């Protein structure tokens, strides 16, 4: 098999088409196993598609150490349908395998895992709050290896309630880990309701900044043009002695009208009728698996 | 009974400190992390020699475990250092998900294990760590008995790919094993051959087992003494070979009776060769403040306690013989 280095000059229009297919994959996957987390998966689709199909240099011939590659870590592991779809559509494994999601003997576990050796996954996640620490460690390994590629990590906003996140934030600034771009899916929702009701995050930007991070706000995390611009800006700010964060304002359930604007679809799967309604809103661009 | 001697008493954590420097020299991928306990963990010499390969984490153990897991991605071999309590109970979920389930090459190095931490009291004297770590799939659990063995183990684990829990202690204890020994993970060490009872000891209790063997000899009991430095994977073959000869066993550890070495041996015996077993361990209670010696005596972890257990198990063996006749 050919080793392909992906750092393409995919156009925004092409990225949007890929994101549409990824969203179709997500709703079909969670429908097929009657479980999983469509809301956050749909909301972050544009960000992950932008990373994997344009902004990151990565190798679909998977290597755990990822030397000379940009790395991505998913801390909010429950949006695994999104990651699996993006990985398969990028070429890490056949899209046909998406149909095995959450089923017995599958490599596509409910939450990302390494035991089944699914290409593209470097660490298990799901128990929240751990991914930022892991990403910071991987970023420091890159520095030790004189590897100037970047480490990306995505967290949920509800996840910011975990104390370990703040341990890692403090550490990364203190140790000047400036080869990391940490994004927070700032959709304002968590399982029990709006974050502001469950446990207010307060001024998250000010909190990150007071911990020593450089913070970019992306007000339109579901607009591909804005997402790619934000990532490029973030990349341009790396290597300056400060870790970089993106507060990515997304809409939970984006792309499927009845899933938007509510925490109700955080961890619920559509039935047959709802699936048909969702698919009618999402263009099939790369062929369903 | 074979004679055992030692030149000095020295803490096992110092063996870790010396071993870490050596591991660092042998493999440039070895890196160190510490959560504000450099002096206690004896990591100072490693930092002096390899300042760029050491990361001070501050009092943030959960982050330390995650960082270590991340550092393995890129080929590093991280050794994390803090007290055994903060190395395990405090960060169990981080170890479970980011290290053990993810099969990361992290070496969790834990000092001040057990009662012999002493005066700080029960908040710091963890007696449940072996249990927590041995329950995790992929995890190797090592509890060496003295300075030389801890040093050898510290060097050896760099060559084992996968998560390791290395447990050692605070007090100065007899340094009696060979100076430049080769440490083989999972290989029990036969210290003294005997015919009447098998004593399986780990960590600080190995020296107590040797002292117990000398006392038992005077009582006419010929004890076989085996150092189980690796609790997982357990050397089942060595255990079975010994008990097939002696027909009864005593285990000894500085740990809760639940979840420790004794429980692992009980499982081996019950499944393969059921025989009388006595477990010398802390009996489902927390520790307290005191000197290490006072605590080991109060909680029943001395040579005399091993002797009592050995005599009891030998009696049980005799009673079983009578029954079967």
Rg measurement of chain A, Å: 18 Å
Total DSSP helices of chain A: 10
The CATH superfamily title of the largest domain in chain B? Thiamin diphosphate (ThDP)-binding fold, Pyr/PP domains
Structure classification of chain A: alpha/beta
- Briefly, what CATH class of chain A? Alpha Beta
Largest sheet of chain B: 7 strands, mixed
Basic shape of chain A: globular
Strand content of chain B: 15-25%
How would you write the strand order of the largest sheet of chain B?
3-2-4-5-7-6-12
What do we call the CATH topology of the largest domain in chain B?
Rossmann fold
Give the oligomeric state.
Answer: heterodimer
User: Architecture of chain A in CATH?
Assistant: 3-Layer(aba) Sandwich
What is the CATH superfamily label of chain A? Thiamin diphosphate (ThDP)-binding fold, Pyr/PP domains
The overall pLDDT of chain A, averaged over residues, is 96
User: Biggest interface, which chains?
Assistant: A-B, 40 and 32 residues
Terminal-residue CA separation of chain B: 31 Å
- Main beta sheet strand tally, sense and closure of chain A: 5 strands, parallel
Number of strands of chain A: 9
Q: How would you describe this structure to a colleague?
A:
- With 289 residues, chain A is α/β, with parallel strands linked by helices.
- Chain A has a five-stranded parallel sheet with strand order 3-4-5-9-8, with helices on both faces. A two-stranded antiparallel sheet of chain A has the order 1-2. A two-stranded antiparallel sheet of chain A has the order 6-7.
- The radius of gyration of chain A is 18 Å and the shape is globular.
- Chain A has ten helices and nine strands.
- The relative contact order of chain A is 0.18.
- The two termini of chain A are 21 Å apart.
- In chain A, helix 6 links the parallel strand 4 and strand 5.
- Chain B has 325 residues and is an alpha/beta fold.
- Chain B has two domains: 9-174, 3-Layer(aba) Sandwich (Rossmann fold), CATH 3.40.50; 189-324, Rossmann fold (3-Layer(aba) Sandwich).
- Chain B has 13 helices and 14 strands.
- Chain B has helices at 12-26, 38-41, 44-49, 61-72, 84-87, 92-100, 129-134, 147-156, 205-218, 236-246, 261-272, 292-298, 303-324; strands at residues 9-11, 30-34, 54-56, 77-83, 107-111, 140-142, 164-167, 172-174, 189-192, 197-201, 223-227, 230-232, 249-256, 277-282.
- In chain B, the strands form three sheets. A seven-stranded mixed sheet of chain B has the order 3-2-4-5-7-6-12, sandwiched between helices. A five-stranded mixed sheet of chain B has the order 9-11-10-13-14, with helices on both faces.
- In chain B, helix 11 (261-272) links the parallel strand 13 and strand 14.
- The radius of gyration of chain B is 19 Å and the shape is globular.
- The A-B interface holds A 64-67, 71, 73, 113-115, 122-127, 129-142, 144-145, 147, 163-164, 167-168, 170-171, 174-175 and B 31, 52-53, 55, 57-58, 60, 62-76, 78, 93-94, 96-98, 101-104.
């Amino acid at each position: 098999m050919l080793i392909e280095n992906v750092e393409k000059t995919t156009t925004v229009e092409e990225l949007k088409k890929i994101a549409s297919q990824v969203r179709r994959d997500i709703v079909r996957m969670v429908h097929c196993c009657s479980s999983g987390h469509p809301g956050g998966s749909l909301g972050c689709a544009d960000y992950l598609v932008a990373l994997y199909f344009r902004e990151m240099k990565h190798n679909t011939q998977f290597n755990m150490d990822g030397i000379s590659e940009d790395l991505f870590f998913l801390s909010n592991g429950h949006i695994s349908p999104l990651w699996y779809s993006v990985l398969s559509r990028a070429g890490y494994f056949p899209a046909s395998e998406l149909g095995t999601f959450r089923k017995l003997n599958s490599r596509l576990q409910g939450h990302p895992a390494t035991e089944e050796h699914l290409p593209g996954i470097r660490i298990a996640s799901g128990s929240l709050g751990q991914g930022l620490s892991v990403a910071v460690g991987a970023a420091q390994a890159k520095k030790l290896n004189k590897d100037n590629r970047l480490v990306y990590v995505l967290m949920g906003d509800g996840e910011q309630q975990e104390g370990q996140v703040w341990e890692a934030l403090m550490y990364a600034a203190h140790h000047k880990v400036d080869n990391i771009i940490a994004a927070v899916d700032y959709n304002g929702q968590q399982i029990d309701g709006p974050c502001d009701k469950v446990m207010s995050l307060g001024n998250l930007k000010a909190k990150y900044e007071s911990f020593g991070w450089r913070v970019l706000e992306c007000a339109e995390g579901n607009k591909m043009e804005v997402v790619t611009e934000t990532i490029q800006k973030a990349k341009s700010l790396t290597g300056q002695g400060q870790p970089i964060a993106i507060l990515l304002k997304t809409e939970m359930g984006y792309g499927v009208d009845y899933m938007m604007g509510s925490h109700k679809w955080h961890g619920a799967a559509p039935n047959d009728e709802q699936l048909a309604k969702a698919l009618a809103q999402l263009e099939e661009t790369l062929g369903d698996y | 009974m074979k004679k055992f001697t030692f030149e000095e008493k020295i803490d096992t954590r110092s063996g870790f400190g010396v071993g870490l420097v050596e591991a660092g020299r042998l493999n440039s991928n070895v890196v160190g992390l510490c959560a504000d306990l450099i002096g206690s963990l004896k990591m100072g010499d490693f930092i002096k020699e390899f300042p760029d390969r050491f990361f001070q984490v501050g009092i943030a153990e959960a982050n330390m475990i995650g960082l270590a897991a991340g550092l393995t991605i890129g080929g590093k071999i991280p050794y994390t250092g803090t007290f055994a309590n903060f190395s395990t109970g405090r960060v169990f979920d981080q170890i479970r998900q980011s290290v053990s389930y993810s099969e990361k090459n992290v070496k969790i190095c834990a000092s001040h294990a057990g009662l012999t931490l002493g005066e700080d009291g029960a908040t710091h004297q963890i007696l449940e760590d072996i249990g927590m770590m041995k329950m995790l799939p992929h995890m190797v659990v090592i509890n060496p008995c003295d300075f030389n063995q801890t040093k050898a183990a510290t060097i050896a684990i760099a060559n084992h790919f996968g998560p390791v829990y290395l447990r050692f202690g605070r007090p100065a204890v007899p340094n009696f094993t060979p100076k430049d020994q080769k440490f083989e993970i999972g290989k029990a060490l036969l210290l003294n051959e005997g015919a009447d009872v098998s004593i399986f000891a780990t960590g600080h209790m190995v020296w107590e087992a040797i002292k117990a063997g000398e006392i038992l000899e005077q009582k006419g009991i010929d004890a076989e003494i085996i150092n189980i430095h690796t609790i997982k994977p357990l050397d089942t073959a060595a255990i079975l070979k010994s008990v097939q000869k002696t027909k009864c066993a005593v285990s000894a550890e500085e740990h809760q009776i639940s979840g420790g070495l004794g429980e692992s041996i009980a499982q081996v015996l019950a499944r393969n060769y059921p025989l009388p077993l006595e477990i010398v361990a802390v009996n489902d209670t927390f520790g307290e403040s005191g000197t290490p010696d006072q605590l080991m005596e109060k909680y029943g972890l001395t040579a005399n306690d091993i002797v009592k257990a050995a005599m009891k198990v030998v009696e049980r063996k005799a009673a079983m013989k009578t029954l079967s006749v």
